[in-house]
Design a protein that fits this description.
single chain; about 170 residues; mainly alpha; extended
């Protein structure tokens, strides 16, 4: 817990330092990836685009395996398939197929005309719209012994009809 707080504190100061520096140079509206790279010019001069590219590549190297892995685990658990990176690929074929497909899909998005900044914005909007109904479904599921067995959550949801058990 302490390390997570420490990493969040570092992230906060990175964001704060970037915002103050960019605002000082009059950069307050970034709409595209090219503008984001150009915004680094006051800090990195002629290395701005190289620095931005290194950041994007580094972020991708961190994000793609995590997102592909979470998609593979979620799908495999939903269909009760064999799961795990500790298993050999022939022992968990569907799991590894999803992992490979999701990774290739992430790589393929780089070769489309989709603007990454706009894609991030719309993915956040979609997540925001989906989260409330999804949480309601999850809360209904964890309150049902037929779904959760002995691990049912007591008082899973605050007052929605049919969710409280006597």
């Amino acid at each position: 817990m302490r390390w997570m707080g420490f990493s969040n504190l570092i992230a906060f100061f990175i964001i704060l330092t970037s915002a103050v520096t960019l605002h000082l140079h009059g950069i307050t509206d970034i709409q595209t990836s090219a503008q984001a790279a150009e915004a680094l010019r006051p800090l990195a001069y002629e290395f701005a685009f190289m620095l931005f590219a290194a950041g994007i590549v580094g972020t991708g190297l961190l994000a793609v395996p995590v997102l592909a892995g979470s998609a593979a685990y979620a799908m495999a658990e939903s269909f009760d398939w064999r799961i795990g990176l500790g298993r050999k690929p022939l022992d968990a074929r569907a799991f590894y197929a999803i992992l490979i497909f999701a990774t290739l899909l992430g790589v393929a998005l780089n070769f489309t005309p989709i603007d990454p900044i706009r894609a991030l914005f719309w993915s956040a909007v979609i997540n925001g719209v989906i989260v409330a109904p999804l949480m309601m479904v999850i809360m209904r599921m964890v309150a049902r012994p037929s779904v959760m067995g002995q691990f049912v959550a007591p008082h899973a949801c605050c007052g929605l009809d049919g969710l409280r058990r006597p």
